[in-house]
Each structure stands twice: as structure tokens, then as C-alpha cells.
Amino acid sequence: MTHLKTRDLTPGFGSEIIGFDPKAPLDDETREQLRDLFDTRRLLLFRNIDLSHEEQARLCTMLIRKGEAETIEAMGSKESFISNKLDDGIAPFGRLQFHGDTMWAENPYQVLSLYGSEVGQPAAPTTFVDAVAAWNTLPADLRRRAEGHEVLQTAGAVRRGDMSSVLITEVENPPTTVTRIDYTHPRTGESVLHICEQMTKNVIGMPEADSEDLLTSLFAHLYKPDGQLDHNWREGDFVVFDNIALQHSRGRVVKDGPARTLRKVASPMPKLRPDQMPRWAAEGKAKEAA
Ligand SMILES: [Fe+2]
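# fe (ii) ion complex -> structure
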């Protein structure tokens, strides 16, 4: 059994695993240790490692499949990159508001990972918040107002708050789903404050002003600055995180700035029709808000 040396990135969530190469063959006990750390700390960081697409995909599925060895089911047909330099890069410029990827899907990604394959400095950080802690620490009056209500989550543009430099992406037929605000985490059973700035349109059955008022109060709690973790990217960083328990955002990226290319692997993949897919700048469809 490997003894994993860890360092807390915040008191509540995020652990760096120090001096351990996760692509090495893993024994059952080490796998269990990593899964437990993933479920309790929600984000694992490995620095200065060399990771292939396949190795990244195996680690992602291993972390959410109790008692099973690695598989490569997370791996799509081709590699995908968040990048301001590659022609087919995802989210190639602009700022991203807080969100969980595919929160608009019936079964959103449980695990999301990014590997710094080309990172110049300074690189815009990715910022994380903990939506489980946010639910657990909600003031009682806010919890009463939110509990049991449902919200509409959409992949289409929801414009609210500070929109400066936010990347706006067009989707022909944006997929949507309705979820409870107090959402039950599929693996841990914990309650999650399951709303986000970028994708939560409104509270179902509530007048628009009341809906926005409730969401604004909940966002102020969820996104309070002292609960945030900034990850400052270096090449060779591997960050794997619970995409339901945590939300992420990023600062502004510009096309002619330093390279920021992060290989992305997520699991499980929702099935989408081509007209439900976001269209990125490579197709000339994305733009930055003024
Ligand atoms: Fe994202």
C-alpha cells in the first residue's frame, strides 16, 4: 500500500497529493485511498507529472467507480482541450462565470479533470467553490426559502451579474433540465446547493423578481470570497474534481496572451444531438460580452 502524502489547499476542500505519480500501477488499497480522498476533499491536485489522455481518462473513471479497476470509458473519441491557441480549442477566450459543467443535463459529469499540457505565465487561474459546504452553512432563513424548490438549468445564455468579458456561446437548441435547489449528490448522498450563475435560469413557479431575489441571495453565500480556491496553473498540473460538489470559474483569457492549453476529460458523458452542442469561436459563433 502506498502512503499518500497530502497538503490541504483550503480547510474545507482540495488536497494536493505530493510526490506521487498517479499513472503508476495502483493496488486496491491505494485506489480506495484515492477514492476516499476524492469523496471527502472533492478536488485532488498532482503537480509536475506527465500524463497521457488515456491515463487521465482511466484515473477519472477509477475515482467514481467504487470497487472497480480503471477503465477508459471517460475518454471521448478524440482529445479535447480548453485552449486559447489550438484551432478547435474549447472556451478559447473571455471569462467564465461560476458553473458546474453539464449542470443542464439529467446526469451531469460526476468527475471533471484538467491537465496543463501547455501553460505560459501568467495563466488565468481556475477558481473553485464548494456547493456542499454552501448548503450546509446556509443561514436558516435562506434555507427555508430555498428548500424543496426546483430550478430550470439551461445550456443557453443566462445573463446576470457582472457580465464584463464573459464568453457567450450560442447553442441552437440548448438542452435544459429541472432539478431541486437542494440536490442529492449521486455518490455521497450529501445535499448540494445546486444553482449557478451561468446556467440556472429561474426558480420554477416563482414570480421572476422573487426568483432572481432568492437566487441572488443564494449566490452571495455560495460565492463568498473566503470560500474560494484559486488554482494557478503550471505546466504538468493535473487537477481532478467533483463536478457536482464543486463549481468552477475562470478569469479572462485572451487569444494573443500566454498559451493556456488544458486537456479536459470528464465522466460520465451525456449524449447530445449536434444541435444541442455549444459552438465555439472556431466556428465564429462565440463572442465576449461587452
Ligand atoms: Fe467548465
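# post-check
The CA atoms of residues 192 and 277 lie 26 Å apart.
The pocket of fe (ii) ion is lined by residues 99, 101, 248 (CB under 6 Å).
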